[in-house]
Amino acid sequence: MDFKISASILSADFARLGADVDEVLSAGADFVHFDVMDNHYVPNLTIGPLVCKALRDYGVTAPIDVHLMVQPVDRIVPDFAAAGATYITFHPEGSGHVDRTLGLIRDHGCRPGLVFNPATPLTHLEYVLDKVDMILLMSVNPGFGGQAFIPSCLRKLAEVKRIIQASGRDIRLEVDGGVKADNIGEIASAGADTFVIGSGIFGTPDYAETIAEMRRTLGTV
């Protein structure tokens, strides 16, 4: 299994963001994850395209995985694409026309994906599965970092994994929220292949050892 670790900079040291991102990538993270919140769709305000561009200008070449917790979505997509995003995922509730937004993301050269909150049904996938490169399941309610993993997400992960396998398509299955070294194995066993981790890495004293421990666990899945 091609497991990927996506380090969420929401938990990074913003006073030295470029250096902190370099450190986490050198420690073994695969992607850089952006939690983009607008104080409208979710009750928090975080970062925008300028931070993405700043990291690219700084020299970060790893894939940047942008999770838009914003409403409306379409206005900000071209800005993140121009700033250097690789993946752009969004919540169907944030778009008036989900199919159109997925097309907009791809037309701007990025890989599109959908995000589902813990209690959001998966019905959109019936109609747009052929248009997504990533499905992100929230294992916490969006808006704040550092929350505990919601166990019912494991059943939902298994359901989405079955949908992906039945489609025969190459779609990443990402999980975001409360992922740590002590539960990443169980989450992977449920079907996830991409793991958004913020405080579970940035809140530890040794990024490399933390990621190595996670890799050792994933190696047994």
In CATH terms, what is the architecture? Alpha-Beta Barrel
Beta-strand portion reads: 15-25%
Order the strands across the largest sheet as they lie in space. Answer: 1-2-3-4-5-6-7-8
Shape: globular
Describe the structure in your own words.
- This protein has 221 residues and is α/β, with parallel strands linked by helices.
- It has one domain: Aldolase class I (TIM Barrel, Alpha-Beta Barrel).
- Helices cover 36% and strands 19% of the residues.
- It has 9 helices and 8 strands.
- An 8-stranded parallel β-barrel has the order 1-2-3-4-5-6-7-8, surrounded by 5 helices.
- β3, α3 and β4 form a beta-alpha-beta unit.
- α2 packs parallel to α3.
- It is globular, with a radius of gyration of 16 Å.
- It starts with a strand and ends with a helix.
Keywords:
single chain, 221 residues, alpha/beta, TIM Barrel, 8-stranded parallel barrel, 9 helices
Topology:
Elements: E1 4-8, H1 17-26, E2 31-37, H2 49-58, E3 64-69, H3 77-83, E4 87-90, H4 98-107, E5 111-116, H5 125-128, E6 134-138, H6 153-167, E7 172-176, H7 184-190, E8 194-197, H8 199-202, H9 207-218
Parallel strand pairs: 1-2, 1-8, 2-3, 3-4, 4-5, 5-6, 6-7, 7-8
Put the structure in a nutshell.
The chain has 221 residues and is an alpha/beta fold.
